[in-house]
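Appendix B, Record 12. Input sequence as logged:
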Amino acid sequence: MKLAGCPLCEVPGGVPVFEGARFRVIRAEEPGFPAFYRLVWTEHVSEFSELATGDRRLCMDAVAQVERVLRAHLQPAKINLAALGNAVPHLHWHIVARFEWDSHFPAAVWAAPRRSAPPERIAAIERLRPMLESDLARSLATGAGKTGPM
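Logged structural output:
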């Protein structure tokens, strides 16, 4: 079910990377964070606990798969996972590759910046994204997203 007025029901929410029957993965356009992804549940639910057991498993398997692909391609210092939904109460997971050089590290991406991120480091990650996102889409289509395309 889609909810009128919900931004994640009405628009992709970022650059589409994968779309399956139960969820989609997008790259969020967050300045200074070139590897910031979101897994957005297709059906409008506010809380993770609203999902049936199998859907919870599918969702977390997909979150873990996004994390694995980011780690394999980027070797970040850390992967941050968050499902806040305070501003947009539609179930979505933030999956963010973090680097010691990023503007906020080690603080949260929503904290005050500590430094400027080096543009050449951001550009290097951006150059890796086409292969990363191709691998991510392929792995979700054959693994955690196996419920099939929409």
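The beta strands are 15-19, 23-27, 36-41, 78-82, 92-98.
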